[in-house]
Structure formats: C-alpha cells, structure tokens
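Q: Hi! First time asking for a complex rather than a single chain. Here are the components, and I think there are four in total. Is that enough to go on?
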Amino acid sequence: MPQPPHNRQSTSAELRATALEQFASVGFAGTSLQQIADAAGYSKSSVLYHFASKEALLDEVLTPAVNRLEAILERFLATEESALTRSRFVNDFIDFILEFRLELHTFINQSQSLRGIPVIDRAGVVIVRLSDTLCHGDASTEDRIRFGIALGGAAYTLVAGMTFLGEEIAPVEEVRPALLTVITELLAPVTVRTAPSRK
Amino acid sequence: MPQPPHNRQSTSAELRATALEQFASVGFAGTSLQQIADAAGYSKSSVLYHFASKEALLDEVLTPAVNRLEAILERFLATEESALTRSRFVNDFIDFILEFRLELHTFINQSQSLRGIPVIDRAGVVIVRLSDTLCHGDASTEDRIRFGIALGGAAYTLVAGMTFLGEEIAPVEEVRPALLTVITELLAPVTVRTAPSRK
DNA sequence: ACAAGCTCTGACCGATCGGTCAGGTACCGT
DNA sequence: ACGGTACCTGACCGATCGGTCAGAGCTTGT
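A: Yes, that's all I need. Here is the structure of the assembled complex.
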C-alpha cells in the first residue's frame, strides 16, 4: 500500500483546517470524524492518531483564536482608556475577525450547545469580559445589543453571508475598510460615551 | 399503560416547539429525534408518527417564519419606496425578528449546510431578495455588510447573545426600542442614502 | 542489516442514528 | 356491544457514530 511522503508536521495542520471548515459550516455535533477524514484525504483512524478525541480536535482548532482574542483584550485593559487606544482596539478586533472568522463563527454560534468543553468556556469568558469592558459595566440594554450585533453580525457576514449574499467573497482590501466603518459606528456610542459617564 | 388525554392538536405543536429549540441551539444535524422526543416527553416513534421524517419536521418548523418574511418583503415591494414605507418595513422586520428569533437563528446559521432542503432554499431566496431590495442592486460592499451584520447580528444577539452576554433576557419592551435604534442606524445609509451622521 | 519509531490504516466494538412496523389503548359513531 | 380511527409505543432494522487496537510501510540510528 503506497504511502505518499507526507510532510511531517503538515498532516495535523491539514486536519485542523479541514475540521475547522466542517465545524463552522455543519456544526461540531453535525460533523463526523469520517467526514473530516474523507475531506482531508485520510482515514478516520489517522484523525484519531493525531488527536486524542473529537473534542481534543475542537480544542486544538479553536485555542489559537481564543488566545489571540484574550491577548487583544489584555492589551486593551493594560492601557489607559483613550480615543487612541479604543481605535487601536477596534483595529485589532477587526484584524482578529478577518483572520479567525471561521473560529469566531464556530464558537459564536455553538457556545451554548458546547458548554462544558474547556476551550468553549474559555471563549465564553473572554467574550463576556469583552462585553463588560466595552459597556463599562452599566448594563444599558442598547449598548449590550450594539456589542452583540457587532460580534454576531461580523461572524455571520464573513462566513455565511458573504457566500450567499454577495455571491463571491469580496477581496479583503475591500471588506476591511467597510467592516471598520460599520463596526466603529456600532461600537462608538458604547465605548466613547462622549463625556460624563463613569470611569 | 395510562394514556393521558392529550389535547388533539397540541402534541404536534409541542413537538414543533421542542424541535425548534433544539435545532436552534444544537443545530439540525446535531439534534436527534430521540433528544426531541425525550425533551417533549414522548417516544421517538411518536415524533415520526406526527412528522414523516426529521426533514419534514424541520420544514414544518421553519415554514411559518419563511412565509411571514416573504409577506413582509412583498408588502414592501408592493408600495412606492418612501421614508414612510421604509420605516414601516423596518418595523415589520423587527417584529418578525422578535417573534421568530429561533427560526431566524436556525436558517441564518445553517442555510449553508442544509442547502437542498426546500424550506431552507426558500428562506435563502427570500434573504437574497431582501438584500438586493435594500441595496438597490448596486452592490456596494459596505451596504452588503451593513445588511449582513444587521441580519446575522440580530439573530445572534436575540438567541445566543442575550443568554450569556446579558445574563437574563431583558424584557421585550426594553429590547424592541433598542433594536429599532440600532437596526435603523445600520440600515439607514443603505436605504435612505442621505442621512449624513448620527445624533 | 537490523531494530526502533513515526505515520497511517482496516477491522472491529458498543452505542446511537433515522426510520419501519405491528400492536396496544382510548375514544368515536353506530 | 362493536368496528373504525387516532394516538402512542417497544421492538427491530441497516447504517453510522466516536473510539480501540494490532499491525503495515517508511524512515532513521547504529
């Protein structure tokens, strides 16, 4: 039986990428190891050789994105809040969305059903902290909704929306400024709050 | 074995409601007929007695929402476009979102993986028409993104977001005006094309 | 040449999947 | 009292689920 010369490290990366696509589009529960294996051109046993379990695979797939989001939040929290740091944060956030759109879509839309899985809970904690930070703790319903719409809307638009609303995915250099405009507009009243409120 | 006097019509409605919750939170592929049956207090066979198949159940669950959305679109298309009709449309749309939030969340986040199922394709067609109508056919990327974010963001916020961003679901009478403000703001540049800035 | 080790696979396991079917129970008009 | 019908269920079906395990093929160190 011929054994194509697989490039060491890359098999695991291929599997992660394939799994991510499936998780984002069919859902974690709806994705079988067999599907992932078939799509990547390996056998189911190979998947389980590289990853201890389906859940471990999900963990490895999502962890880089959660780490990155955590880093962005920490960086924002570490500085004095100003118009500059806020704008820098929004930029970081949009970079994050564009780079990790499949990961974001996955845990945005499945965090409820996958509660209990460590990486999902970690992601949930980060998102709640993010929301609390941006809303300054005063739980105005409108502010919460602004944040939720920005988060869920971006995740949806860049994964599901682009492929069936805009036919083909528009080039990143066109999407990015548009995203920046809309997200800034959504988050502006939340973070800026002009003058008087707390802090 | 005692047979409690089930109120004729209601069993099927119970099952639809239970199935909708599961579909929206775990996904169609991730929901088993057994889960639905257990959650509703019936046997799996009962589910298949009331609905020809799992897919038929999905169809019956989503069809009312798609019909309603279609009606809203037709009503908007039937009139001359003006500030009044646009505002009425946004109001209709928000009523729709609030009433059918689980249905919206279901086909918003799974239309890609469930392509081929009639009711899903129908929903997809309506959404594309909606997008084309609001964007006047000139496919500005920013306008498309505005619509996508409004649609996906609302679906996310009202299902996943409210329960883990805002702890408890805020009362509808508080959510509705906030939603109206944010959605109007998002869609305003798309439809109005004049409004220069925010308050 | 040979053993060790990494990668990959088919065969197999118990559990669960969507779906079929025969039958049991309650209520109906007659 | 009786047959029909609506509702519900357990037993069962082939397929597939996540996961285990014993190797096979290839590379490497010695």
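A: The longest helix of chain A spans residues 54-78. Let me know if you'd like any chain examined more closely.
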